[in-house]
Amino acid sequence: MAGEGSTKAVVTAMFANFGIAVTKFIAFLLTASSSMLAEAVHSVADTSNQALLLLGGKRAKRAATPEHPFGYGRARYVYAFVVSIVLFSIGGLFALYEAWHKWSDPHPIDSWQWVPIVVLLVAMAMESYALCTAVVESNKIRGDRSWTQFVRTAKAPELPVILLEDLGALFGLVFALFGVSLTLITGDGRWDAAGTAMIGVLLVAIAIILAIEMKSLLIGEGGSPSDVRAIETALTGDGVESVIHMRTLHIGPEELLVAAKIAVTASASAADVARTIDAAERRVREVVPIARLIYLEPDLRQQLAEPVD
């Protein structure tokens, strides 16, 4: 499945959200706060999403079959896309519905008034721990990319999804604390509804961002610019005059397909060309280990520009 760091971040977030969800449901039953109900459902959605990410990683490990000759690596993208749908529907739309319902029929929090405040503060501490774990694991592979670039360019979906979910969960808790606190101070339940609506808008926005990024990965993304440059450099030399054209495609987060037409010397024999191709493949795998499938087509570079096949 995903790397060890991704798995650790997903498992940490899953257990944290499960515990938070149970606590929030208890708080809702005691107080009837719509913000607490929205946050409880949000935590249930997050827990389900992390379970989906783990399942996607397990399904992606299946061996290739005649029907799927390149394996199941993209299963991780499929399950991550499902995560965005769950977050949008169960989390975001439910919160917006609950906000509308509470705004139409507002009521103050009359009993156990201290419960939601305590629950939200404890949930913030637990979500902060989960987010810190995701940040630490992401920093191991993020390099010099900004956080926005990391989320947009990462080929493994787990860490970006967990980062956005945990960050959204923290902001959602802040919005819930805002709504609950003002409801307790003013006695006006519409503040509770306002906090719930803010949670819903936040979750819908995060779900849309995730859906856009996962859609791009599902359609098929090429290798990173640095990997492409490294592959082109590694291909050239030792019998390969130049790279005529090349295409790369991620068939999984840690699997890159490379297809290239390379120019070889006109005097090379068939045996020489075979040895040249084998050597070029070894060089590519040394510099870009995830380039596991390499297809090289030898050709002679023409004087005029050759159209791309």
Polypeptide structure, described:
The relative contact order is 0.13. This protein is 68% helix and 10% strand. Helix 1 runs antiparallel to helix 2 (34-60) and helix 3 (75-104) runs antiparallel to helix 7 (190-219). The chain has two domains: 4-219, Cation efflux protein transmembrane domain (Alpha-lytic protease prodomain-like, Up-down Bundle), CATH 1.20.1510.10; 225-299, 2-Layer Sandwich (Alpha-Beta Plaits), CATH 3.30.70. It contains nine helices and three strands; from the N terminus they run ααααααααββαβ. The chain is elongated, with a radius of gyration of 25 Å. The two termini are 35 Å apart. The chain has a three-stranded mixed sheet with strand order 1-2-3. By secondary structure, the protein is mainly alpha-helical.
Provide the β-strand percentage band: 5-15%
**Count of domains:** 2
Gyration radius, to the nearest Å?
Answer: 25 Å
Oligomer: single chain
Anisotropy-based shape = elongated
Features:
single chain; Alpha-lytic protease prodomain-like; Alpha-Beta Plaits; 2 domains; three-stranded mixed β-sheet; 3 strands
Task: Summarize the SSE layout with pairings.
Blueprint: H1 4-31, H2 34-60, H3 75-104, H4 114-142, H5 147-153, H6 158-186, H7 190-219, H8 225-235, E1 240-252, E2 255-264, H9 270-287, E3 291-299
Parallel strand pairs: 2-3
Antiparallel strand pairs: 1-2
Helix pairs in contact: 1-2, 1-4, 1-6, 2-3, 2-6, 2-7, 3-7, 4-6, 6-7, 8-9
